[in-house]
Amino acid sequence: MKILIVGSGGREHALVWKISQSKRVTKIFAAPGNPGMTQLAERVDIKPASIIELADFAQEHQIDLTVIGPEQPLALGIVDEFNNRNLKIFGPSQKAAMIETSKSFAKEFMRKNNIPTPEFKVFAAAAEALEHFSRAQFPLVVKADGLAAGKGVYICRNPEDAADAVNEIMVEGKYGKSGERVVVEDFVAGSEMSFMAVCDGKRIFPLATSMDYKKALDGDKGPNTGGMGAISPAPQINRELFNQIMKSIIQPTVAGLKFENKEYRGLLYAGLMITREGPQVLEFNARFGDPETQVVLMRLKSDLVDILEGAADQNLFDVPADWDENVAGCVVLASRGYPKKYTGGHPIEGLERAKSLGVEVFHAGTAQEAEGLVSAGGRVLNVCASGPTLKEAMAKIYDGISFVAFEGMVFRRDIGWSRK
Fold it and tell me: How far is the CA of 30 from the CAs of 17, 172, 247, in angstroms?
């Protein structure tokens, strides 16, 4: 099989790494890919948003399966374009992807289908939101309605915080059209969990659970990021909770979307808060999480291509689920200043020495220059490993990180601390 992976981050590098292990695969292309993938895949200079160009490439090169990493091409309708050309692709249609691309749609959908989620209101005018804050109970959460690369969420302790959030989203337009509306929801306490499942429209293939660390600084301090690390399995998970999530969240979501003629084929990601009353959905994503994918794929023993193709073919009947009992972890090495302003172009050293300790290093924001590998993003590298215990896996990761260096490198030193 010839496989095309769309995207350029750590999640896509992990997908390339796992797919390259399939005996069925003869060639992998990555568009646009990153320097870390070059030994496993041929990079193609096409941006993820160029959906016509990607479809033309898949047609011309007779690609057997295309796998979408980031959310942007899904929002633009890449799956519909491929389906119109009878090209096999893993991902939801543009209509089904609304579960991520519009938080207001997702919240209304959950209310309609009795899927547990914090209470909320939607505002299309800043003045209306500000008026609501004058009588609201705090803390609460303000979210940009559309895509914001994981950064459009503000936990507000008082009306002043909430007003600042609305001003940044709606008045200053930090997220463009994604901020034309805001969702204001109740703050709920608990522990976060990421739950991903592959769907073929009817059947559901749940993946191993994970937990990511969204805050920029140790101790869950600082601004939200796209994710500074992850572990798998999530420490809270047990059979009872797993069954509850499937029954009250994942199954009714897939069934509800099908009822609305938005049949879901692809990866459904539920960002959950495990509260005293049970799991509640904070957000849905229509694609693999990042960096959760890295730790989940570290533990997957089954052939990932069988799973992805089964979903694309609406045939997840007999795909085996085989998981490593080891625990996996991931620490993100970022540029100082992320998720705000940062600089790139700094030489990266020590990757081979780190890998010699048995860690996997997935590139997230790197570039290959004449003088060598340099930083080229907010999140630069993902250092990942597995082990019999979380303590052993994280010790291996942090040992590996000790050999890696680039100017302005920052990372959290508390990934893997239990947060049940």
Answer: 11, 35, 36
- Which tens digits make up the pLDDT trace of 173-231? 999 999 999 999 999 999 999 999 999 999 999 999 999 999 999 999 998 899 999 99
Query: What are 86's two structure tokens?
Result: 């009878």
Which one, of 269, 225, 212, 220, lies nearest residue 380 by Cα? 225
The CATH class of 191-312 is alpha beta
pLDDT value at residue 212: 95
* CA–CA distance, 311 with 412 (Å, rounded to integer): 35
Tokens of 19: 């797919």
Which part of the chain has CATH 3.40.50.20? 2-91
Cα 78 to Cα 95: distance, rounded to the nearest angstrom: 11
Cα separation, 128 vs 136, whole angstroms: 12
CA-CA distance, 358 to 349, in Å (whole number)?
17
CATH placement of domain 327-410: 3.90.600.10
The architecture that CATH gives domain 125-180 is: 2-Layer Sandwich (3.30)
Q: List pLDDT tens digits, range 137-184.
A: 999 999 999 998 777 899 999 999 999 999 999 999 999 999 999 999
| CA atoms within a 13 Å half-sphere pointing along the CA-CB vector of 375 | 26
Confidence of residue 420 (pLDDT cuts 50, 70, 90): very low
Contact 367, 376 (CB under 8 A): yes
Task: Dig out the tokens for 51 from the structure.
Answer: 């959906």
Topology of the domain covering 2-91 = Rossmann fold (3.40.50)
